[in-house]
Amino acid sequence: MPIRRSKVLVKWIYENQHKMQTIRCCSSLLRYKEVEESAQVEPETISIPQTTPIPQIAPEFSFKYSDLQVRLAAPYQLQPKPDASALGFGKYFTDHMMKVHYHKELGGWQKPEIVPFEYLTIHPAAKALHYAIQLFEGMKAYRGIDDKLRLFRPDLNMERMNLAAQRSGLPMFDGEELIGCITRLIQIDQEWVPHSETSTLYVRPTLIGTEPTFGVMEPDSALLFVIMSPVSAYYKTRSDGAVSIYADPSVVRAFPGGVGNRKVGSNYGPTIEVTARAAKLGHQQVLWLFGPDKELTEVGAMNIFVVYINEHGDKQLSTPPLNGLILPGVTRRSILELASQWEDITVKEEVITMDRLIDLNNQGRLLEMFGAGTAVVVTPISNVGYVGENIHIPTMKQSQPLFQRLKDTLLAIQYGHIDHPFSRIIS
């Protein structure tokens, strides 16, 4: 058998060993060849997940919700529920968490489990600690006016998480299987979902490389876990309900060919120093610019939106295009899809520069700026600090601001005031 053919066959045997449990101890190449010839998928035609539009993950390569094991916390392990008014963001955690291990040498994903909330034990040499081989997602569970619990477009979070896993060399999975596990976790800790329309249960799926070896390479072991936290406001706003943002053209958040479009921890740690500097100057977030034209990319951990009167005299909602520098936010996409159905607004993805923003403001055509994301929903912007000056944005002076209309619509969907396909009810 030619060497290349042998290598392909061995690779196929390893990737499909779960199909051959009855012959795993057999070392006969003839027997392997018989299995190969009778298999539905030939070694040469094994499909590789694509980056666009959605990773194609064969169900057999994923953990299964049907294999989920549950170990409930003992009464003494249960924590008291905090008052909704004292929640803050990410200060408290629910009684249970979900975990599923991945070990390449054991065939891949192991059985998922829900266990009492606990600390993780990982080797000091785990790749997540040294090379930032890790990623995460942010979702929310909402208690509706009908007391039913809802998730908001969780399939999009799963798609984005798998794309980040693919870029980071971490194992991918079937998103619906993880949604099933998360749903069960929420059901178990459902009393942690606030009985309030100003608070929610934040859900944080995280995937880390745990292989304890030095060397920047794809890890052979990983851990996917999900923890949850009841939350309220992400950060404080100014007295007018808006935020002030700081734009420093000397720093960037992401660059072409990087991972600005993936939700990985390495995108966030390096922003802390600049954010602290902005806070000392009286700003709540950082507006990240890029390139010689000072293109707007993101604001803090939010996508950025601008509302202005365009050249045709129409009100236009614009946001930067997904060019690899920007996270494809679930809220961002939802805003674009909702606003595109409204006849009184033009919706466009376009490059927006600081010079363009200043010109629109000087001409009296700039109406609003706001950020959008899972944690904050929609947050208005009333001031931009830029090269030593403050650019005042008339967002809060509009009689019927678009940001408020969008925020109200999103919250109505999330809390069940509107029956909408964006919401997935947890039965």
Give the secondary structure arrangement, pairings included.
Blueprint: H1 3-15, H2 29-38, E1 69-70, E2 96-103, E3 108-109, E4 113-116, H3 127-131, E5 134-136, E6 139-143, E7 149-152, H4 154-168, H5 175-188, E8 200-209, E9 221-231, E10 243-247, H6 272-280, E11 285-290, E12 295-299, E13 302-309, E14 315-319, H7 330-339, E15 346-349, H8 354-362, E16 366-373, E17 377-386, E18 389-392, H9 402-414, E19 423-426
Parallel strand pairs: 1-4, 10-11, 10-17, 14-15
Antiparallel strand pairs: 2-3, 2-4, 2-9, 5-8, 6-7, 6-8, 7-19, 8-9, 11-12, 12-13, 13-14, 13-16, 16-17, 17-18
Could you walk me through the main structural features you see in this protein, from its secondary elements to its overall organization?
By secondary structure, this protein is α+β, with helices and mostly antiparallel strands. The protein has nine helices and 19 strands. The strands form two sheets. Strands 1, 2, 3, 4, 5, 6, 7, 8, 9 and 19 form a ten-stranded mixed beta sheet that branches. Helix 4 packs across helix 5 (175-188). The chain is globular and about 65 Å long. 37% of the residues are buried. Residues 1-53 have low confidence and may be disordered.
